[in-house]
Amino acid sequence: MGSKDEVFEVESKVKMKLISSKHTALAGNILTTILVAVVGTMNIQNNLYSYAGFSPLEIIVIGLVAMSVIPLLEWIAYFRIGKRGEKWWKAFLLVVGIMSLLRSFTSINNIVVFLARIVIGVLYIATFIIKDNAVANPDNNQKKNTE
Predict the structure, then answer these.
(1) What region, left, alpha or beta, does residue 83 occupy, with left being phi > 0 and alpha being psi -120 to 50 degrees?
(2) How many CA atoms lie within 13 A of 41 on its CB side?
(3) Between 45 and 39, residue with greater pLDDT
(4) What is the pLDDT of residue 135?
(5) Distance between CA 79 and CA 73 in Å, rounded?
(6) Model confidence at 145: pLDDT above 60
(7) Residues 6+ apart with CB under 8 A from 97
(8) Cα gap 46→105, rounded to integer Å
(9) Contact, 59 vs 48, CB < 8 A?
C-alpha cells in the first residue's frame, strides 16, 4: 500500500490525462456532424422544390456536398491533432469555433441549435487553448524542470 503522497500523485496524473485537445475536438466534431445531419436534412426538405430548373435529386446532392465541406475539414483537423502541422489545424478549429459562436445568434429562435452551436464553438476554442504536452505527458514536464 502506498503513502498518501503516492496516491495523490497517481490521482493527479489520472485527472490530468482526462481531457486533451483531441477529446474536445472529437466532442465538437460529433456534435457538428449531428447538427449538420439534422439541420441540413430539414433545410434540404424545406427548399426541395424552391429551385426552378433543378430536379430534387440535384438539389439533394448539391446540398449534401455544400454542407459536408466544413465538417469534413473539421474531421481532418481532428485526425491531424498530435501530428506534424497540428498548430495550423488547431488554428482552423479556433476560427471555426469563433464562427460557430457568432453564427449561434442567427439561430436564437431555435434553442437546441443555438445551444449546440455555442457548445461546439466553446469546444473548438478549447481545442486551440489546451496544451497537450502538459496534459498528456506530465512526466516529460517534470524531467525538463529537473534538467
Answers:
(1) beta
(2) 5
(3) 39
(4) 40
(5) 10
(6) no
(7) 28, 120, 121, 122, 123, 124, 125, 127, 128
(8) 21
(9) yes
pLDDT in tens, 2-38: 566 555 555 555 555 567 888 999 999 999 999 988 8
Residues in contact with 136: Cβ distance below 8 Å, sequence separation at least 6, in sequence order: 17, 20
Separation CA 94–CA 75 (nearest Å): 14
Nine-digit cell string for 36: 449538420
CB 117 within 8 A of CB 101: yes
DSSP string for the chain: ---HHHHHHHHHHHHHTS--HHHHHHHHHHHHHHHHHHHHHHHHHHTTTSSTT--HHHHHHHHHHHHHHHHHHHHHHHHHTTSTTHHHHHHHHHHHHHHHHHHHGGGTTSHHHHHHHHHHHHHHHHHHH--HHHHH-HHHHHHHHH-
pLDDT at 147 over 70: no
| C-alpha closest to that of 22 among 83, 70, 99 | 83
What is the rounded end-to-end Cα distance, in angstroms, of the chain?
31
The three cell numbers locating residue 77: 483537423
Spatial distance between the Cα atoms of 84 and 61, rounded to a whole number of angstroms: 34
